[in-house]
Amino acid sequence: MNQFQYVQPTKQKAAIEALVKNANAQFIAGGTNLLDLMKHGIVAPEKLVDINKLPLKKISHENSSLRIGALALNSEVADNKLVLAKQPLLAQALNAGASGQLRNMATMGGNILQRTRCPYFYDIALPCNKREPGSGCSALAGFNRMHAIFGYSDKCIAVHPSDMSVALAALDVTVVVAGPQGERQILFTDLHRLPGDQPEKDTTLTRGELILDIIIPDTPFAQQVHYLKVRDRASYAFALVSVAAALATQNNIITAARLAMGGVAHKPWRLSETEKSLVGKPVSEKTFQEAAEIAMRGAQAFTHNAYKLKLAPNILVEALKTAAGIA
Ligand code: SF4
């Protein structure tokens, strides 16, 4: 057991200062991922800065946007009346994630920042560039059934595990963060990184930055939405592939679309070109199959995950059909 210091500040400024004072300190909230990482010996922080006393749990609707505090629990958000009325896609994605017990502990900020479930990342006996930069990637020639088909590098082929983040990527979300240099806002689609040459960096957050709020602008997509997740078990399993789909239609013609995929890349995979291709087209299976072809451009599989090249477009079509009400 590694010894570590534990502090529980009640002010945001004090929490950030407590973190930056020690280069090997980490924030902790629900702990549903970090404690596993500590138990497996993947991380060994010298100090935990518990942020649970910070006032970051509020869910409100203001300035035509839903504002969700980073410490709101996944289960609270999924059941919240404002969320269900304004952003049911988010509620669907939250309920598809983890288990009831975990959703009762996991926070919104922690869900966004959870780390990959690549099995080699969790096996400290094997090389992993994300855990130990420069050591190699065991998944490249290993059992890469769960791994990426988009946006990977020769340093890392892991995928981001969050369901909720796939919905957030589709919904034009902004994240408010605070750090030693003050506050800033980041587009959600710019928050997570592709692995490139630095797979150890999951996000574009800088040292000491803390997620405060998630802002979701009102959209015309409240009704025609669907989050579809395919996984090995009906519960408590990460996505093999998932799709967050949202449509706006008028007289059976698509006027706007939002789409993102999970389980396919190092970050939630927004499908902007596919969205554009849908606008002006009639709601039909043919339209959705053409969109799926566009979505899959550039996809490349490894030895054990070629099934994703068929599964992903099929799920995309099914998610769009359900969102459009023609399933
Ligand atoms: Fe590590 Fe990424 Fe390779 Fe998995 S895919 S072993 S996380 S470097």
UniProtKB/TrEMBL annotation:
Record-linked SUPFAM superfamilies: CO dehydrogenase flavoprotein C-terminal domain-like, FAD-binding/transporter-associated domain-like
Pfam families assigned: CO_deh_flav_C, FAD_binding_5
Ranges where the FAD-binding PCMH-type domain occurs: 1-221
One Gene Ontology MF term: FAD binding
Keyword line: FAD, Flavoprotein
Coiled coil start-end: none
Stated name of the protein: Xanthine dehydrogenase family protein subunit M
Species this chain originates from: Adhaeribacter rhizoryzae
